[in-house]
Amino acid sequence: MWEVLLLEDDAALGRGVRLALQSEKLHVTRCGTLVQAREAWGRGAFDLLILDVNLPDGSGLGWLRELRRESAVPVILLTANDMETDIVAGLETGADDYITKPFSLAVLRARVNAQLRRGTPAPSACYEAEGLSLDFERMEFRRDGQIVELSKTEQKLLRVLVENRGRTVPRETLLDRVWTDGAEYVEENALSVTVKRLRDKLEEMPSKPRLLKTVYGIGYTWVAK
């Protein structure tokens, strides 16, 4: 699954962009300030950054300049500045594309897809390790050759963890990506209960998991194999 970080201080526009881009193969994390975006960037691994230039707590170009010292992740700038000098400045700072407001969501979606196609291939839909065979394309899951029945919620949680194996995925991120039915409130223990069920079904010793591990105070990780 592709991971996109969207930094847009206009809440209505941000929601619209997220709805236009989000799919089974692409997840959007939306932030409204530089502080929030820096925190999100530090927690996760992103395949693309969509960045507003004029922000309430700083300059998007300033952050882009910092990012380019450590990352080559594709960046699309969103801005109301349509002067040629502003566009040139954005591209010379390290942006891969530049879209001026107002813009078509269909055009933005096409440009996002174009940038992602140039990057790293999307994660494989199949995974095998420790006697497990997980096929997320067919939604077939086996342990030691035997079919394992997983609920829709268990499937979604497992996929997020496996596609981000080797990384710690915060609880908040998992709740946002797995419980997507529009409910305003998710019970505090819903995630913990689902994790326990996955361990019971997939781990050889659920009480001493080798694959689905807890990172205390943060979230969970699927150990890379």
Automatic annotation (TrEMBL):
Entry annotated with the keyword Phosphoprotein: yes
Cellular component GO terms held in the UniProt record: cytosol; protein-DNA complex
Span of domain OmpR/PhoB-type: 124-224
Pfam families found in the cross-reference section: Response_reg (PF00072), Trans_reg_C (PF00486)
Gene3D superfamilies: 3.40.50.2300, 6.10.250.690, Winged helix-like DNA-binding domain superfamily/Winged helix DNA-binding domain
DNA-binding region (UniProt annotation): 124-224
Sample GO molecular function, one term: transcription cis-regulatory region binding
Biological-process GO terms, alphabetical: regulation of DNA-templated transcription
InterPro entries: CheY-like_superfamily, OmpR/PhoB-type_DNA-bd, Sig_transdc_resp-reg_receiver, WalR-like, WH-like_DNA-bd_sf
Entry keyword Mitochondrion: no
Keywords: DNA-binding, Phosphoprotein, Transcription, Transcription regulation, Two-component regulatory system
Domain called Response regulatory: residue spans: 3-116
Modified residues (4-aspartylphosphate): 52
Cross-referenced PANTHER family: REGULATOR OF RPOS, TWO-COMPONENT RESPONSE REGULATOR ORR33
Function: May play the central regulatory role in sporulation. It may be an element of the effector pathway responsible for the activation of sporulation genes in response to nutritional stress. Spo0A may act in concert with spo0H (a sigma factor) to control the expression of some genes that are critical to the sporulation process.
UniProt-recorded name of the protein: Stage 0 sporulation protein A homolog
Organism ancestry: Bacteria, Bacillati, Bacillota, Clostridia, Eubacteriales
